[in-house]
Specification:
The structure is a homodimer of 325-residue chains.
Chain A lengths: L4 H8 L3 H9 L6 H14 L5 H7 L5 E6 L5 H16 L3 E6 L4 H15 L2 E4 L16 E4 L9 E4 L1 H14 L5 E5 L9 H13 L5 E4 L6 H14 L5 E3 L3 H13 L9 E6 L2 H6 L4 E4 L2 H16 L7 E4 L2 E3 L5
Parallel strand pairs in A: 1-2, 1-3, 3-4, 4-5, 5-11, 6-7, 6-8, 8-9, 9-10
Antiparallel strand pairs in A: 10-12
Helix pairs in contact in A: 1-2, 1-3, 5-12, 7-8, 9-10
């Protein structure tokens, strides 16, 4: 049976009104009471009725989008697609770029959660932001694990990692290096790394992953990429974390006298339209941006209507076959 | 002497309250009255006191950004920079992508102008949208001429056109074609065309401009670019309207057997960070995106405080010297 607000009140040993006030962040509440109510909610797996909550909150018809930066082609394309989908359903979007700035992300959340938006779609990379756990707001994540209650829309990162690694092996490379985000970052993109390492091992090849934080500058990234060639002059191919990094790696390789694809292979990730137009020769894994946006908006709608949702929505990827690998 | 609200009332033969109601879009007003008040405002060059208007309107601390699409690298980078600047000043941004869709732009304006934002920064490409003329809201345009009362922030399009054309001539090209938006589009980017045509003529070369609407699909653009080579097999160089178009032209040229830069030169426009990372070899004109964003936010602030502003702010461009031209 679905737990009710009164079950939470009973377990937390508070009144129903107090639970309601916690959910709607109204009036003075001690941290102890707030913690007790949330503990009871978690124990009972209680999901506040968003429709009921909306009675307290005036609807804004605004949806917040929090992403690292729209200056990156993948997020630019994704935000564009999200805005189009949301607009069709009568929503306008409020956008925050939180790259490099967890304080800004927390501040955005703090302000948005209070009253400014009806829902949130998030794909940021910052860690340790507690506001999500107590956010009494419909939220959908894209490519990011935030907490057990927030559904995730993602592309098939495991299959993407497999496809990329297999392609490089097929093209004859043995010394293949992968770049990926920090391992402690809670993101499904980690599965690309798992797939890469598994595929390498299945072919009796030794995997080697370099950590490259998405949030650092192009200059700092280039230094890491130069180090790859210094520390591993035997490297024949790189499976990069994204297309912009793949381009930077290609530039570093060419400066060091490597010719692509003659004696060095590069495969990217994301495969946005603009990158395919600018660098049609870059072999890459295409994320289904339009479908991801559509799915995220659909799931957010279900959350807003208090309908059941899945925990994870995994959408298929495709290889874009260029000449770089 | 600065005209006052009562001067407008006198000239329009209505009460001061009516002028105020027109300015604040409150209560029932006949179109005839509205038109008469705006005609009087125009005749007297009266600028409504934004501070006074804010007394009627609850502040939202939201700024609307209307651009064609954040999926394009230039607008992605610009919107990212605008959001960062606005956030620092306590504003959040509401974003609309209106590419290809004048109805959506008009609808956005209609909704935003009423109550949702405190100001607007606009860089869209749609034409004939009358909402801007009667918008009683602080507005700044980027790279777009909307009406005489809306200040424009832009980069030095004339100098950019000169720099690009001179570069191609220096590199030995004589048959140089330029692509630019529709000539009836009210945008400062037209000055690039004027500069290109003037520079060509100064060198006794024949200018030839192809019209390529920014809003059409990549496929439709490629068809136009193929036509350039069919209709003008003598073409040695193209000065493209933007970097994405430059990349498409390069692809078309290479498919037709032209080698860049050996027997065909291409120069782009915009020079965003991401394009310089993806295609460092593309010679292009760099727009000062960060400074344009900063200037636009500054001017919007002045408008919101009812301080005087210039009509036009022109910021310097630079050549990014790649190998494509």
């Amino acid at each position: 049976m679905t737990p009710k607000l009164e079950d939470v009140a009973k377990l937390a040993k508070v009144s129903k009104t107090t639970v309601s006030r916690v959910l709607n962040k109204r009036g003075y509440l001690s941290q102890k009471t707030i913690d007790r109510v949330y503990a009871a909610m978690r124990e009972l797996n209680y999901h506040p009725n968003v429709v009921a909550r909306q009675l307290y909150k005036s609807q804004t018809n605004l949806i917040g989008l929090l992403f690292p930066t729209v200056a990156n082609p993948f997020f630019g394309e994704l935000v564009d697609a999200l805005e189009k989908n949301l607009y069709r359903q009568g929503f306008k979007v409020l956008i925050g770029n939180s790259m490099n700035d967890p304080k800004k992300e927390a501040a955005y959340l703090d302000q948005l959660l209070i009253k400014q938006v009806d829902g949130l779609i998030v794909g940021t990379h910052n860690q340790g932001i507690k506001e999500y756990d107590t956010a009494n707001l419909p939220i959908v994540a894209i490519d990011r694990i935030m907490n057990a209650d927030i559904p995730i829309v993602e592309s098939d990162n495991y299959r993407g990692g497999e496809l990329a690694t297999e392609r490089l092996i097929q093209r004859g490379a043995k010394h293949i290096i992968h770049t990926n985000g920090p391992i402690d970052l809670e993101t499904p993109a980690r599965r690309r790394r798992v797939a890469y390492e598994g595929t390498m091992q299945a072919h009796n090849l030794e995997p080697l992953t370099y950590t490259v934080d998405f949030n650092i500058s192009a200059k700092a990234k280039k230094e890491i990429f130069e180090k790859i060639f210094q520390e591993h002059p035997e490297v024949e191919a790189v499976f990069a974390a994204n297309d912009v990094d793949a381009a930077l790696i290609m530039n570093v390789a060419q400066k060091l006298g490597r010719q692509v694809p003659k004696d060095f292979l590069v495969i990217g990730y994301d495969g946005t339209q603009v990158v395919r137009e600018l660098m049609p020769n870059l072999t890459t894994i295409m994320q289904p941006t339009a479908q991801m946006a559509e799915q995220a908006v659909k799931v957010l709608g279900q959350r807003m209507n208090n309908e059941p949702t899945e925990t994870e929505y995994i959408l298929p990827v495709k290889l874009w076959s260029g000449t770089s690998a």
